From TrEMBL:
Annotated region (Regulatory domain), positions in chain: 437-578
Cofactor requirements of the protein: Mg(2+)
Subcellular location: Cytoplasm
Name assigned to this protein: 2-isopropylmalate synthase
Binding-site positions, Mg(2+): D40, H244, H246, N280
Keyword Metal-binding: yes
The species this protein was found in: Methylomonas methanica
SUPFAM superfamilies named in the record: 2-isopropylmalate synthase LeuA, allosteric (dimerisation) domain, Aldolase, post-HMGL domain-like
Gene assigned in the entry: leuA
Record flagged with keyword rRNA processing: no
Source species taxonomy: Bacteria, Pseudomonadati, Pseudomonadota, Gammaproteobacteria, Methylococcales
Length: 578
């Protein structure tokens, strides 16, 4: 048991921003996206990507629509340096994509970074240094003034190194690492100093990036910090305010969304939340969250499975089954009540109208997923899901009471065998239960004939393997068949009858559903399928009788009362010509 946490942890102090505006704002447009997949994410992998994998992921990112991609930390490794060179030398960068490289604010590293970018059409040099007191003191061993001087000198050096290289359109990004733990007055002082040193103008904006390098507070605190900066930095029109939320508390997506309401214009993150520790903000979720609010995200995830495949192949990580929008199970309902609601929602959904399917906040088709996986059956599933699968895969629409009856059959099956049952297995179970029940009665053939009292039928069946010819008359084929079967000794009545067709054209099959009741006994459904509706109805009646006869209650009663279908030597005689 963890006790007394306050002796170890303190709540994050609130920001003094009484007139905060972000809570009343909504996001109305997509931010500028920057993918750090090839840097942070790559650093944090068990096995860093080799050049081929990096290139594959770079192409995937370009295909998704990222226009700014941080491709490497070239001063940190030869592999990263060579990768940047390859992109430039082999002209692998699309014209509308800007590559970015990260560097600490140290002269040799900055020189090497600019060298790596030589000849690029367009490039962002990204300088980072920590600014929070614990970092400045503990890690850098510097005062605030020294940190400020280091940042400005770094910017001036990059300005100098890039000034002569006119073939490249240079931009600068400056990140205050550990921004969320930095005193805001110092953060603004550093930001203003570096943007002045760069000479930022509305035509040559500097990117000021305010990361939650380690997420330590609720997302509203981050939003307050961003709004405070948005309102206090100088040359606001010459600055692109960028955020880079990490996910240590699991709220990176919320933090990014609130930060956008608070004035941020750009978001850095990774596909599926990859990155150091718990990762960077998940850009897929963020983009598709926007999409579900009716905002075009500017990133294309219309084939999410292809993105997952590339991501997994390149990083060696796997996307969990419950990952928003992308996981295998995120559009799947196993629970009966959910399935029932989804089935009704699908039925009511009109093409071209607003999406409104219960429990499915998002149309799976928008990320290239089909509806097949939406409803999956296990022991928690109910009649709605089962009926939906039979209808969507086999075109068989079950009457409601049959749905209830069959769902109990499915439940017994899944309780006994455990796990999940797919559409094909479900159909097999349905066929076994209703269509292939040919004992004790089996249909062999029939002929209808006119009779003065109504409809006559000559019925050929097998009873326990013995052929029988029966005759009956009624006000229609069903009543006539019931009467013919009555000659075998068992009394059943029809509680309900429904017929439908499945398939279309030459494949069309009639499907008859008959609910039968034994005298004072249980009820059971019979189902018949055939190209001919009368034959389908007779098969349904025979199937229902068989199921009643095989019903445990019925067997018991039959033993007592000698009920049931037994061969009789002289079936009721009806004159076919009468
Ligand atoms: O998390 C962080 O602070 C970073 C910086 C390099 C932006 O990754
Ligand atoms: Zn980071």
């Amino acid at each position: 048991m963890l006790t007394n946490p306050s002796s170890k942890y303190h709540p994050f102090p609130p920001v003094a921003l009484a007139d905060r505006r972000w809570p009343n704002r909504t996001i109305t447009q997509a931010p500028i996206w920057m993918s750090t997949d090839l840097r942070d994410g790559n650093q944090a992998l068990f096995e860093p990507m080799n050049a081929e994998r990096k290139l594959r992921l770079f192409r995937t990112l370009c295909g998704i629509g990222f226009k700014e991609i941080e491709v490497a930390f070239p001063s940190a490794s030869q592999t990263d340096f060579d990768f940047v060179r390859r992109l430039i030398d082999d002209a692998l960068i699309p014209d509308d994509v800007t590559i970015e490289v990260l560097s600490h604010a140290r002269e040799p590293l900055l020189r090497r970074s600019v060298e790596a970018l030589h000849g690029a059409r367009s490039a962002i040099v990204h300088i980072v240094n920590a600014t929070s007191p614990p970092f400045c003191e503990l890690v850098l061993g510097m005062s605030r003034a020294e940190v400020l001087t280091m940042a400005v000198k770094a910017v001036l050096l990059v300005k100098h190194l890039t000034a002569e290289q006119l073939q490249t359109q240079w931009r600068l990004q400056y990140s205050l690492e550990t921004f969320t733990a930095t005193e805001l007055d110092f953060a603004v002082e550093v930001c203003d100093a570096v943007s002045a040193a760069w000479g930022a103008t509305p035509d040559n904006k500097i990117i000021l990036n305010l990361p939650s390098s380690v997420e330590t507070a609720t997302p509203n605190v981050y939003a307050d910090q961003i709004e405070w900066m948005h309102r206090h930095i100088a040359r606001r029109d010459s600055v692109i305010l960028s955020v880079h939320p990490h996910n240590d508390r699991g709220t990176a997506v919320a933090a990014a969304e609130l930060a956008l309401m608070a004035g941020a214009e750009r978001v850095e993150g990774c596909l599926f939340g990859n990155g150091e520790r718990t990762g960077n903000v998940d850009l897929v979720t963020l983009a598709l969250n926007l999409y579900t609010q009716g905002i075009a995200p500017g990133l294309d995830f219309s084939d999410i499975d292809a993105v997952v495949r590339d991501f997994e192949a390149c990083t060696g990580l796997s996307v969990p089954p419950r990952q928003p929008y992308a996981g295998e199970l995120v559009f799947t309902a196993f629970s009966g009540s959910h399935q029932d609601a989804i089935k009704k929602g699908f039925a009511a959904q009109q093409p071209g109208s607003l999406w409104n399917v219960p429990y499915l906040p998002f149309d799976p088709a928008d990320v290239g997923r089909g509806y097949d996986a939406v409803i999956r059956i296990n022991s928690q599933s109910g009649k709605g899901g089962i009926a939906h699968l039979l209808e969507s895969h086999y075109g068989v629409v079950l009457p409601r009471r049959l749905q209830v009856e069959f769902s109990q059959v499915v439940q017994r099956h899944t309780d006994r065998h455990g796990g999940e049952i797919g559409a094909e297995q479900l159909w097999q179970l349905f066929a076994q239960t209703y269509l292939d029940v040919a004992q004790p009665l089996r249909y062999l053939g029939h002929q209808l004939f006119e009779h003065a009292q109504g409809q006559g039928i000559q019925l050929q069946i097998e009873l326990d393997g013995e052929p029988h010819a029966l005759i009956g008359v009624g006000n229609g084929p069903i009543a006539a068949t019931i009467q013919a079967l009555g000659s075998l000794g068992g009394a059943v009545s029809v509680c309900s009858y429904e017929e439908r067709s499945t398939g279309s054209g030459g494949d069309a099959q009639a499907c008859a559903f008959v609910e039968l009741a034994a005298a004072n006994g249980p009820t059971a459904y019979g189902v018949g399928m055939d190209g001919n509706i009368v034959t389908a109805s007779i098969k349904a009646l025979l199937g229902g009788c068989n199921r009643l006869t095989n019903h445990a209650d019925f067997r018991q009663r039959r033993a007592i009362e000698n009920e049931g279908f037994t061969a009789v030597s002289s079936p009721t005689a009806v004159n076919p010509t009468a």
